[in-house]
Amino acid sequence: MKRLAIAISLLAVGVAGCGSSTTPTSPSTIKIYTVQLSPANEVPPITDAEQSGHGTAVITIHSDTNTVDFSISMSGFPANTNVILAHIHPGAAGVNGGALIGVAGLAATTPLLLTNGSGTYVANGVASSATNIQNVLASPQNFYFNVHTSVHTGGVMRGQLQ
Asked: Rounded to an integer, what distance in angstroms lies between the CA atom of residue 64 and that of residue 134?
């Protein structure tokens, strides 16, 4: 019985040592922002049927690879709302800015249809420049994330990175 326990212990040590040859990303190179999205935050605020929508974006920035992961949850929109774009923009609260880092895969030609007014979209490994990544990380409050629909091509809901 003692030999069996020793053999199992040695096997466990051996298995623990057999990991992947890739080095895991250091936590210091990852920054996660959870952004609450609201039509009231748009400039100007949304006041039509899409004002009932809201959402949350989880934005994970990897400064070691200059990539961004996006996970966007949306609900409360009218049925059959078309989400056509989503971006990180420069701009403090109340100030509009040009698109800086776009969410891959969303476009007017390939919209995300929110059939029942709700949906989720994920895009991982979106490449950006080291300069863009460092600027966002240095002053996240000076950047916002927003989602665009076919009705509101300039943006339907928005939230500041914090």
From this structure: 11
